[in-house]
Amino acid sequence: MTSDEPPPSRSSLRQERADTTRRQLLDAARDVFEEKGYRATTIRAITSRASTAQGTFYLHFENKEDAFGQVLAEVWQGMLSMVDWEWEGDPREITRSAVQSVIAAVAMHPGIARALLEGSLDNETIEARWMASRAVLIERIAELIAKEQSAGRARDLDPLLAAHALGSMVEWVALNRYALAPERHAPGVDAMVDAVTDLWYHAVYRGHGSG
User: Fold this and answer.
1) Which of 17, 88, 95, 200 is the most exposed place for a label (fewest CB within 10 A)?
2) What pTM was estimated for this model as a whole?
3) Rounded CA gap, 162 and 133, in Å?
């Protein structure tokens, strides 16, 4: 700060401290959900990890469900960023990027993926958040298939049904290989991405398979 700059106000300092505390709580929540899963995670465990009082937690989150929702929003941000793509370029590379965004997110945060499954079975709000995020992804995949059909490159498929099938394939391959059974020596992410990309590409584009 130079001599020409005014000192920070009390309100800005309070906000800065509040932002720092929220970040600590969110990081702690991510770590605890990753380690313990959704059901076993408690607010006490989160605040203990963040070295804050339990009352402080409620200044930033409504409850455990709210904290988990905000953790998910950050973890899946990279995966869902694909919906903003222009979908231009080599079809195989577009496909690979889409597949990688999902598989890599699960492989990097397997405990969070397991917690998502747990939470969805226990909590309708978490289930609804997951389904809403999936819906955006599925709709974008369907748009890509329809666009490729218009260009004469893709087979005669129902775009939305195909998008559901392909999206589910990627999602469950990722969950099965990296979240539900990580001890089974899952293949490297690149190898798994290549395998799934090849299946997706051959299923959609003309000259591959029947149709």
Assistant:
1) 88
2) 0.80
3) 18
